[in-house]
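Quick illustration, no need to memorize.
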Amino acid sequence: MGILATYGLRPHEAFRLDFDALKQCDRIVQVQRNTKTGKRQVWAYHPEWFEAFHLEHVQLPSIDLNRPNEAIGRSVNHYFRDANVPFNPMLLRHRWAIRSLEYGLDYKLAARMMGHSYIVHERIYHRWIDRTVLQSAYDRSLENHQVPPLPKDSDKS
């Protein structure tokens, strides 16, 4: 579950990673070609979760990987249900999309990391953007803002 939450992966993609790179503590996940949308790199949101979930030693359920990705994804859904996890694994992916925005990542880059177009990203994830997310993004945008001096004639307005 930690790998899905940290990197916003599709359920089947958790089994289609460069695990050697993970073991070397490479925090940029390498999704392999044999996935729904092919090879790509994904960065962690929250980066601290790499250590918190011990992702260099990620433990995945033992399932038959010699099946289509859709079947692997269904196995992950069943695993969540059987473990009494109170939500669908895709919610972890949705939450990653929102976290990436909260961190200030351009949504077109987030879409690329998620393996779809920015148009698909807008259609799926922008409905989850509420006032709290907008306020957080606004506050972050002001963090490095320097207040310019007022024009000398400001008292004449």
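The helical segments are 2-7, 19-23, 49-52, 69-82, 90-102, 107-114, 118-125, 131-142.
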